[in-house]
Amino acid sequence: MIVFTFSQVKLAKNIAKKLGAKFSKIEVNYFPDNEVYIRFNKNPKNKDVIIVESLTKNPNEKIIQLLFSSLTAKELGAKKVIGVIPYLAYMRQDKAFKKYECISAKILPKILESCKLDAIFTLNPHLHRIKSLSEIFSIPVFELSCEKEIGEYINKNFSKDWILIGPDIESKNLIRNISEISGLNYIILKKKRFGAKKVKIFIPKVKGEKAIIIDDILSTGGTIIETIKELKKKGFKKFFCIIIHLLSENSIKKVRKYCKVISTNSVQTKISKIDVSNVFSYEIKRYLTEKPIREIDELF
Ligand code: R5P
Question: What's the predicted TM-score (pTM) here?
């Protein structure tokens, strides 16, 4: 088994270590006209190949890299080719908000299917009007969640008087599960979006002073900043923010003026403090060995 990546070295190395697999970086170069050149540094023949890459920091480029590398691995004789795509791009455009718009969430699966991947493993995908990825994919897609990792981080670092905050109704299941693991109370807010950069947050009656805001995505930072402003009006004084997929490092500077923020290594950044490699290695092992959960537990 070989775990490959283009840019997510830390996460891919951790996954490889936990699977007892080799690790290798895929070579990428560009021709003068910007066409991409891709080469494996290890022979994928007769191996199970895992390609780890989040579709962010230039998502369109990452999609092409994934397409070229997965098809090449198959041509070179790989057994199974698995895509580990912690952040699955384009899921937010899940309906035509205006006439004649492209519904990207329904197109991306068609592109990924043409990669001939045997399976895709992804982390806390952004699902709103589409309830499950099986509605839009016709290949096996495993929707994994890092709630255990976040819950354990909170357990280690926070006292029980902090309150978990979910900024919108879609965050409810995630926050409720983290609340069960961490033993902290939680509230779910209401969010109304007025375009890509503007949101308004509505807060129910609540008492508390310390808030841990948890969101799946940080893009412009607008959701977190508006949430903090509204919580302040209700008497909250201390804030901490945990993000699963950090899409914009520039936005960290903006959010930091309001609170400390950390993220998982779904996307590797300077503030990736929660490792999600276990989530993937555990499920991949189960998928490849088709062993029952108890036997897999013994391997870890
Ligand atoms: C949206 O519903 C997501 O859960 C996030 O709240 C949103 O994508 C964050 O984006 P931004 O940082 O631009 O407010």
Answer: 0.94
